[in-house]
Design a protein that fits this description.
The protein is mostly beta strands and 115 residues long. Helix content is 0%, strand content 54%.
């Protein structure tokens, strides 16, 4: 099993920055990948960014150049640095990990960007 706990959400003005953190009960080196998803009210949950144990990253086109996913050296914490935030980035952000073909999710953290 993998337990995930997110933190760092909040209210920020457009153009501002936030850094989300996801603390995992297992190191990223024991899972296939870790990722951040987001879900706005009435919309589906969408992939924002993903990072592999080797450090490869990939981003949704809507956040590329503004968001950065990273991990600490121990691999237990994954971050999402969000810059130049826009009102359309408002959503609940979820941490995700896959291990042995099972997806694990955190409880989510709310990000609200005011215009």
């Amino acid at each position: 099993q993998v337990q995930l706990v997110e933190s760092g959400g909040g209210l920020v003005q457009a153009g501002g920055s936030l850094r989300l953190a996801c603390i995992a009960s297992r190191s990223i080196f024991t899972v296939n990948f870790m990722a951040w998803y987001r879900q706005a009210p009435g919309k589906q949950r969408d992939l924002v960014a993903v990072i592999t144990p080797g450090g490869s990253t990939n981003y949704a086109s809507s956040v590329k150049g503004r968001f950065t996913i990273s991990r600490d050296n121990a691999g237990n914490t994954v971050y999402l640095q969000m810059n130049s935030l826009k009102p359309e980035d408002t959503a609940v952000y979820y941490c995700n990990a896959e291990r042995h073909a099972i997806n694990y999710w955190g409880q989510g953290t709310q990000v609200t960007v005011s215009s």
